Each structure stands twice: as C-alpha cells, then as structure tokens.
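Inputs:
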Amino acid sequence: AQKITQTQPGMFVQEKEAVTLDCTYDTSDPSYGLFWYKQPSSGEMIFLIYQGSYDQQNATEGRYSLNFQKARKSANLVISASQLGDSAMYFCAMRERNQGGKLIFGQGTELSVKP
Amino acid sequence: KAGVTQTPRYLIKTRGQQVTLSCSPISGHRSVSWYQQTPGQGLQFLFEYFSETQRNKGNFPGRFSGRQFSNSRSEMNVSTLELGDSALYLCASSLGLAGGLDEQFFGPGTRLTVL
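Outputs:
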C-alpha cells in the first residue's frame, strides 16, 4: 500500500544553517513522483521540488535539494542557508503514475527557524 | 499567470446543512483535485476531475461529491454536514496529462467550520 512517513513532527534550525527533513515512502508502482510542499500559517500549499522515480540525479531548486535514495525509499528535503521565512509546515507527498492526480501526503514536519 | 483560486475563503455552517465550494484552476490546467485537511487526519485526497469526468476518488462517504465544468472550474458539495467535516479544503490543479506526474498547484483553501 502506498504510504508516506515523516518521522519528525517538529524541528528547530538556526538561521543561515542547513536542515534536512526526512521522508520515507512505500509503493509497489515502479513509476512515481515525489513532491515537497511548504504550508505557512496562512494555509496555502506551496510547491517546492519534485523528484521522479526514474530521475538519475537529485533534484535541486534554489536553496532546496532532494536527497533521493531509491533503494532505501527515502526522499529527504535539504534546505540550505535557512531563513526566518522558512518557518512553516513541510509535507512530503507521492503520486503513482497509475493513480492520476491523487497525492498521498505524510503527516508533515513543523520547521522553526531561530534568529 | 493567475494562480488557483478558491471561493469562499471562510465558511460557517451548522450541522445538517449543505455547502458548495468552488475552485478555478490555472488557465490551461484540466485536472482539479480536492483535499481535506484536518489536525487529526492530516491531508486526505477526496477526488480528482479531468475533462469533466471524475478520474479518481478517495475514501469519503457519498455526502462528498463534486463536478467539473467545461471551463475546468470545479465545485465540491458536502451534504448533511457533520461536526467532523470542519476542515481546510484545498483544491489543486495540474495539466493532468495521461501518465504524467506533473506538479499540482494549490489554491489558498476554504476553511469550513461546522457548528
């Protein structure tokens, strides 16, 4: 059964430092995509980064990178040079190719950036 | 390019009433998915519409229904509201290409409170 697990309910990081948010997944579909979203207190889900199951290289988008370890079924988000505005909930999500637009979300990690 | 819009942003209803929420996708996007977010259950997939047809459905009772119009705008309806339906309802749009794993872009959500 498809499942996303985020084991860190909350994390603190000092401003300008890097932080890694963990995500593991489970699927039997060989073709899938992994997504990270940021949700500030306003509630809107902001797309951050995407990794396809067949992608050979780890995805990067500005200060965000995804550490994709397919054999371990993990897709950790790395935020470099944290900023105060990075304080938010972060969700890892997965879509399987045969499931259309259905996203399965993890429980989320609340990140707090300290000045 | 305008983002995903949802109306209304806030809604207060009483038990037993029904409610209709609206979602306008990004121009050119044909897939609209709906999600329910609660503190206890997290983010759960409700259904997806593509070209006016429901393409996928989550595990919600029949009180939850939706539809999509020819301009890709979508509505979801909840009948006979229960206290547990209080949640943030998010819609997301994507191109929805067959077999694609394109990212979904979310709207700001509708916060429904059932009294």
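Remarks. Chain B is about 0% helix and 50% strand. Chain B has a mean pLDDT of 94.
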